Amino acid sequence: MNEFMDLTHRVVSLSDRELQILTLVAEGKTNKQIGAHLYLSAATIHSHLAKVFRKLDANDRAHAVAKAFRAGVLQ
Questions:
Q1: CA atoms of 41 and 44, how far apart (whole Å)
Q2: How far is CA 4 from CA 9, 37, 45, 52, in A?
Q3: Could you give the C-alpha distances from 8 to 4, 29, 38, in angstroms and in order?
Q4: Contacts of 25 by beta carbon, 8 Å cutoff, 6+ apart
Q5: For residue 74, which of 52, 47, 59 has the smallest C-alpha distance?
Q6: Phi/psi at 58 (nearest 5 deg)?
Q7: Cβ(6)–Cβ(70) below 8 Å
């Protein structure tokens, strides 16, 4: 499988909530701000982001956002 198809497969595996959180991360929001917006705790956001990083094989928030942009999920 080529790199782009692998990345696309990884992004598609994200849940709706994970995509929602990743979109807010791309807007520059902190875990606390995202939590307040979604009525969740910052710890819950942290947990969701850990899953996003694992699914996308990303090292940090910026890396995850970059991969989602490359896959065409974020604009």
A1: 5
A2: 9, 32, 27, 17
A3: 6, 24, 26
A4: 34, 49, 61, 64, 65
A5: 52
A6: -105, 150
A7: no
State pTM to two decimals.
Answer: 0.86
Query: Is the dihedral angle over the CA atoms 22, 45, 5, 58 positive or is it negative?
Result: positive
Q: Whole-angstrom Cα distance, residue 33 to residue 40?
A: 10
pLDDT tens string 19-62: 999 999 999 999 999 999 999 999 999 999 999 999 999 999 99
Which pLDDT band, with edges at 50, 70 and 90, does 72 fall under? confident
